[in-house]
Amino acid sequence: MRPIDQLLQEYGASHQDATNKFIHWICVPAIMFSLVTMLFSIPFFTERTLFANWAFVFLVAALMYYFRLSFVMFLGFIVVGGLFLWGSSSLYVVLAEDAGKLALYAIAIFVIAWIGQFIGHKIEGKKPSFLKDLQFLLIGPAWLMHFIFQKIGVRY
Length: 156
What we know:
This protein is an all-alpha fold. It has one domain (24-152). The chain has 6 helices and no strands. Helix 2 runs antiparallel to helix 5 (99-124) and helix 3 (54-69) packs antiparallel against helix 4. It starts with a helix and ends with a helix.
């Protein structure tokens, strides 16, 4: 079995309850977006642009991880990461380029989404996978992506 399949299977073992799955479909992307947005709000070495910010640095590192697991997953996360980065940048512009306000929005989304995640796991009756291994923080989004790929008939 490929490493990506093992990781997705192990992650899926603690995500069987329909309510928990539903919560994850909302909260995992919200956490990803809020994390990208928080990182985007941190001052960078140069003027903050779409490709000159800490969020972009983080996304490149995450993409290297996904590339190791699956080239198709890597391509999917280029799209997802790009959309989150664009969303963060757009929100920054809407907020009159106020990085402090941007960070507050991101923190609020982050906290609310994590509360949702823990409620889902309380309903499930199982601890979140990342408590066992931190790499599951990146496998959660891949777990959702693999359902999308299966639905549209893309082998990952």
